[in-house]
Amino acid sequence: MRTSLAVAMLIFILLVIPSFHAKEEERNVLVVGFGPYGKHKINPSQLIVENLSNKLIEGRIVVTRILPVDWSSSYNLTIEAIETYKPDVVIAVGLHPRASKIRIERVAINLKWKKTAPFIETISKGKSLLRFSNLPVGQIVARLRENNISSRESYFAGLYVCNYLFYKLLEYKSEKRIDTRIGFIHVPPLKRMSLEEMIRAVEIAISVSLETRF
């Protein structure tokens, strides 16, 4: 009887406990994109997110969220995912209607557009005017070009929801003092670049960010 109990306990220790540990140690990358808005009935950032969901890159599982094009909702949903998964890297992807290249955003500005005069207001009163991504922007662009993907560094993410989300995520990172890498990538319309090329660009950005993080 004691022998059988000892064997059962040994099996439990060898098989069950390691599985709990593995789950606890699971690491993630978070990629978020936006749904349709205005005249843009198909948003390539949503298609990119859908294609990357649950993919394994550099040993990390890609978790994803599709966000509404809305100031507060986009931020709240992303923060909820960050606090749930505690990802090593967070990359938000958005459509830039006039872009012809992949744009790796380096800086977010504490300004947003509004419908009434003076038409521009601060995102967070009394906070820094600029916040900088801690993604390895230059290295990502270099790797994209090595793979023949048209790309550039960008120093202006606009004054709409994309920049708002970018700024607020960097603000959250600063206030919470987390070491997560956070960045934003703008992609062009599908008529100017294939979806496959955009997906590959985001995959490369994730890989380079993880390779250089540790």
Describe the structure.
With 214 residues, the protein is α/β, with parallel strands linked by helices. It has one domain (27-211): Aminopeptidase (3-Layer(aba) Sandwich). Helices cover 42% and strands 23% of the residues. It is built from 6 helices and 11 strands. The chain has helices spanning 2-24, 44-52, 71-85, 137-146, 161-176, 195-211; strands spanning 28-34, 56-57, 60-67, 89-95, 102-105, 107-109, 112-113, 120-121, 130-132, 151-154, 181-187. The strands form 3 sheets. The protein has a 7-stranded mixed β-sheet, with helices on both faces. Strands 6-9 form a two-stranded antiparallel ribbon. It has a two-stranded antiparallel ribbon with strand order 7-8. Strand 7 and strand 8 (120-121) form a beta hairpin. The protein starts with a helix and ends with a helix. Mean pLDDT is 91; it is low at 10-24.
